[in-house]
Amino acid sequence: MTGRIAFQGELGAYGHQACTEAQPGMEPLPCPTFEDAIDAVRRGEAQLGMIAVENSTYGRVADVHQLLPESGLHITGEAFVRVHINVLGPRGARLDGLRRVRAMDILFGQARGFLREQGLETLKWADNAAAAREVATLNDPAEGAMGSELAAQVYGLDVLARHVEDHDRNTTRFLMMARDLDLRRRGKGPMMTSFVFRVRNIPAALFKAMGGFATNGINMTKLESYMVGGNFTATQFYAEVEGHPDDRAMQLAFEELDYFTDHLRLMGVFPADQRRYEVARG
User: Fold this and answer.
1) Rounded to an integer, what distance in angstroms lies between the CA atom of residue 179 and that of residue 207?
2) Which of 81, 92, 181, 188 is the most buried (most CB within 10 A)?
3) Domain containing residue 61: CATH number
4) What's in the keyword line of the UniProt record (predicted)?
């Protein structure tokens, strides 16, 4: 695919890495926030958006699942990026000379053991690549950043320590989003279907709504809830299941789901990334 693909962060961010690995033929478009990346796709400035949704160590990325249903976009694919966390410093700096490192809080949460062992101060930054750029600008051997090797290349930094993440399979999952929903594709492997819904205000509605997937032999890989509009009684669910909406089993499951919900929206249909199962096997 050609065109531009928007991601949150600056050049050298893990989102940039995801774009180059999953869509090497597209031009990466850095955006300050996830909202900006989504807006770029909505406005036609980019054909795809690469949105981080969860990390195998840290958990889900805050607020993203609330952004997705309101974005007006559709999920067209997923990408799993092996997140190697590296300590970056100015040319000639040494690890034992660092006093502090900069990074997003989510990255610190993936390298707690290393940070504790080294006794480094941490400065929370809005973006990992921006932290690397700041270290390059300061050019102080006591100031470092944590990020990708791509960031080191972009900003001319040395890698002072490689792969300092706590878990050796540390992986971030990204969703690729576009303006149009495409139901024609059929991957060689399993297909994934994602949707959001709200259950009717009746006893055991969620249990009954999910029952159709179990009775029709459909594997549900994700079910997450979050409040809507600041109301404790209004709960929306984001779900992902294995299968395609045209499959007979899926049609039956959705008929039952529709009966117990007062809002249901298909978010996307896309081939499962093979790395999904590699991460699950550990």
Assistant:
1) 32
2) 81
3) 3.40.190.10
4) Amino-acid biosynthesis, Aromatic amino acid biosynthesis, Lyase, Phenylalanine biosynthesis
Q: Residue written as tokens 């958990």?
A: 59
Residues 6+ apart with CB under 8 A from 204: none
Please count the CA atoms within 13 angstroms of the CA of 232 that sit on its side-chain side. 0
Same structural domain, 16 and 34: yes
The answer to whether 25 and 1 are in contact (CB under 8 A) is yes
Does some domain include residue 183?
no
Please name every residue paired with 268 in a beta bridge, in sequence order, or none if there are none: 75, 194
Provide the percentage of residues in the chain whose pLDDT is more than 90.
71
CB of 257 closer than 8 Å to CB of 197 = yes
Helix (H, G, I), strand (E, B) or coil at 207: helix
**CATH code, 252:** 3.30.70.260
Match 């607020």 to its residue by tokens.
63
CA 93/CA 101 separation, integer angstroms: 13
Is residue 10 within 8 Å of 39, Cβ to Cβ?
A: no
Which two three-digit tokens encode residue 128? Answer: 């990992």
Where the chain has pLDDT below 50, the residues are: none
pLDDT at 280: 55
